[in-house]
Write a structure and sequence with these properties.
530 residues; Leucine-rich repeat, LRR (right-handed beta-alpha superhelix); 4 domains; 16-stranded mixed sheet
Length: 530
C-alpha cells in the first residue's frame, strides 16, 4: 500500500496565507465602501449648509461633482477621506448655524470668523463631540455665554472675540480644562470674569482686552502661575492697583499688554528681565518711576506712553539692540536726548513727544538706518536741527514742533521723502529749503518768525520782504512831500498875484522871489528822489 506523500513545507506555509487574501480584499472593499458612504453623507451636509445660508456667492464652488471631491474645496480639510476642518472665514454668511453641521462626525476645527452670523451662542455645536477648535469671532452673536459651555469638554481653542456677548463671563469657561487659547476680547461683557481662568494651567494665550464694561478689579496674585502663557492682554479692562512682582515667574511670556487701565505704582524691574519677552505695552496708566537701565535682549516693542515716568533716558539705552518701537510720549522725562539712543540699528519708531526734554539734539546720528518715524514735539529742545537727520534713508514722519530749536533748516531735509513734516512753533530762521517750498508743507513752518519762503502760499514771510516794505515806505513819503511842495508853490503864487494887484511896482521883485522859491523846491524834490 503506497504511503501518502506530504506537501512540501513552502506549500504548507503559503496555503494559509493565500486563503486569507479573499478576506483582505473583502475587508478593503468594505472599507472603501464605508469611506465612500461617509463622503457622500458629508457632501450632502455641505450642500444643505449652503442651502441653509441662502446660497451665498462665496460658496459657488460647493456643488456635487463626479470629477473632484469636496475634500479639494479650499474651505475643507479632510483626513482619510473624512472632513476634519471647516474654515469658513469671511464668506458673508449672515444666517444661523444649523444643527446638522454636527453630522460631520469627525469635525475637529470650525472657523466661522469674520461673518455676519446673528443670534445667541450656538449650543447646537455641543453635538460636535470631537471639536477642539472653535472660532466665532467678528460676528453678531449676543447674549450670555452659556453656563454649560463646559459640555464642549474637548475644546483646546475657544475664540469668541469681537461680538456682542454680555453679562458675566461664566465660571464654566474655566472648567474647559484643556484650553490652550482663550480669546474673549472686544465684547459687551458688563459683569465680571472668573478668576478660575487663571488656573487653566495649559493656557498659552489669554486675551480679555477692550472689555471696558468689566467691573473694576485687580490682577489676581495667582495669575503668574500660568507657566505656559505666551500672550497675555487685559488692556482697557478697568484693572487698578499695581502689577504683581511675581510676573517674573511667567518665563514663557512673550507679549504683555496692560494698557489703558488705571494701574499705579512702579513697574516691577523683574518684567524687564523676562528673557523671551518681545512686547511690553503699558500705555495710558498712572505708572511712575524711571526707565530701566537694562532690558530683556529680545524686547522689540515698548509702549510706556501716557504715564508719569520721570528722570533721564539712561545712556545704557545703547544696549537695547533689538528695539524696533519705543514710545514714551506724554510723560515727565527730562534731560537730553542721549547720543546712545542713536545707536539702535533696528529702531523704526521713536516717540518722545510731550515730555520735559531739553538741551541740544545729538549732532551725530550713529545708526538710525531703519528709522521711519521721529516725534520729539512739545519739549524744550534747543539748538540747531542736526543735518544728519536729513540723511536718514527711510524717514517719512518728522515732528519737532513746539520746541526752542534755532538756526537754519538743514538743506538735507529736502532729500527726505516725507509724508509728514512739522517744524512749527520754534525759533528757526532763514529760507526754507527749495524742495520743501511746496503747498504740501504749507503748515509745516508756522510760528517761526525768522523763516521765509519764496512762495506766498507757504503762510510765512516772503524772503526779501523787509527791503520791499522799506522801498514802498520811502516812495510814499516822497509823494507826500512832493504834493506838499506843490501846494506851497500854489499858495505862494496866489499870494504874489494878489500882492501885485495892490502894488505893481513890486511885481518885478516878486517875480524874482518866485523863481528863487521854485528853484529851492526843485532842489528838495531832486534830493528826495535821489
Amino acid at each position: 500500500m503506497p504511503r501518502p506523500t506530504s506537501s512540501p513545507a513552502h506549500i504548507r506555509f503559503f496555503f494559509p496565507f493565500f486563503s486569507y487574501i479573499p478576506c483582505v480584499v473583502f475587508l478593503c472593499f468594505l472599507s472603501h465602501a464605508a469611506v465612500s458612504q461617509i463622503q457622500d453623507q458629508e457632501l450632502q451636509v455641505l450642500l444643505k449648509l449652503r442651502q441653509s445660508w441662502q446660497d451665498p456667492s462665496s460658496l459657488d464652488r460647493w456643488v456635487a461633482s463626479n470629477s473632484s471631491s469636496h475634500c479639494a474645496w479650499p474651505e475643507i480639510k479632510c483626513q482619510e477621506g473624512s472632513i476634519t476642518e471647516l474654515n469658513l472665514v469671511s464668506l458673508n454668511i449672515n444666517y444661523s448655524i444649523p444643527p446638522y453641521i454636527c453630522d460631520l462626525k469627525n469635525l475637529t476645527k470650525l472657523d466661522l470668523s469674520y461673518n455676519y452670523i446673528p443670534g445667541e451662542f450656538p449650543t447646537v455645536l455641543y453635538n460636535c463631540s470631537k471639536l477642539v477648535y472653535l472660532d466665532l469671532s467678528q460676528n453678531y452673536f449676543e447674549g450670555p455665554i452659556p453656563s454649560d459651555i463646559d459640555r464642549m469638554a474637548n475644546l483646546q481653542v475657544l475664540i469668541l472675540a469681537a461680538n456682542s456677548f454680555s453679562f458675566d463671563v461664566p465660571a464654566s469657561v474655566a472648567r474647559l480644562r484643556r484650553l490652550r487659547i482663550l480669546h474673549l476680547y472686544k465684547s459687551e461683557y458688563n459683569g465680571t470674569y472668573p478668576e478660575e481662568i487663571f488656573g487653566l494651567s495649559d493656557l498659552e494665550e489669554l486675551r480679555l482686552e477692550y472689555n471696558k464694561k468689566f467691573v473694576p478689579s485687580q490682577l489676581p496674585q495667582n495669575f503668574t502661575v500660568l507657566k505656559k502663557l505666551r500672550f497675555f492682554s487685559m488692556a482697557q479692562t478697568n484693572l487698578y492697583g499695581g502689577i504683581p512682582k511675581t510676573v517674573s515667574d511667567m518665563e514663557a511670556l512673550e507679549h504683555l499688554d496692560l494698557g489703558k487701565n488705571p494701574l499705579t505704582g512702579e513697574i516691577p524691574g523683574s518684567i524687564f528681565a523676562l528673557r523671551i519677552l518681545t512686547a511690553l505695552l503699558l500705555s495710558g496708566n498712572g505708572l511712575t518711576g524711571e526707565l530701566p537701565k537694562e532690558l530683556s535682549p529680545n524686547l522689540t516693542r515698548i509702549d510706556l506712553s501716557n504715564n508719569k515716568f520721570y528722570g533721564k533716558i539712561p545712556t545704557t539705552v545703547s544696549s537695547w539692540r533689538n528695539l524696533v518701537v519705543f514710545d514714551a510720549s506724554n510723560n515727565l522725562l527730562s534731560g537730553t536726548v542721549p547720543a546712545e539712543l542713536t545707536v539702535l540699528p533696528s529702531l523704526t519708531t521713536l516717540l518722545l513727544g510731550q515730555n520735559k526734554l531739553s538741551g541740544n539734539l545729538p549732532a551725530d546720528i550713529i545708526s538710525w538706518k531703519s528709522l521711519t518715524t521721529l516725534d520729539l514735539s512739545h519739549n524744550k529742545i534747543s539748538g540747531p536741527i542736526p543735518s544728519k537727520i536729513g540723511l536718514l534713508p527711510v524717514l517719512t514722519h518728522v515732528d519737532l514742533s513746539d520746541n526752542q530749536l534755532s538756526g537754519l533748516i538743514p538743506p538735507e531735509f529736502g532729500q527726505l521723502n516725507l509724508n509728514l513734516l512739522n517744524l512749527s512753533s520754534n525759533r528757526l530762521s532763514g529760507p526754507i529749503p527749495p524742495k520743501l517750498d511746496e503747498i504740501a508743507y504749507d503748515a509745516s513752518f508756522l510760528n517761526n518768525p525768522g523763516l521765509c519762503a519764496s512762495n506766498s502760499f507757504m503762510r510765512i514771510n516772503i524772503c526779501n520782504n523787509q527791503s520791499q516794505r522799506s522801498s514802498k515806505t520811502n516812495l510814499t513819503l516822497i509823494m507826500i512831500l512832493a504834493i506838499a511842495a506843490a501846494m506851497c508853490v500854489l499858495l505862494v503864487v496866489l499870494f504874489m498875484i494878489k500882492a501885485s494887484r495892490n502894488n505893481r511896482d513890486q511885481a518885478d521883485s516878486n517875480l524874482q522871489l518866485l523863481e528863487q522859491v521854485l528853484s529851492a523846491i526843485v532842489e528838495i524834490l531832486s534830493s528826495l528822489f535821489v
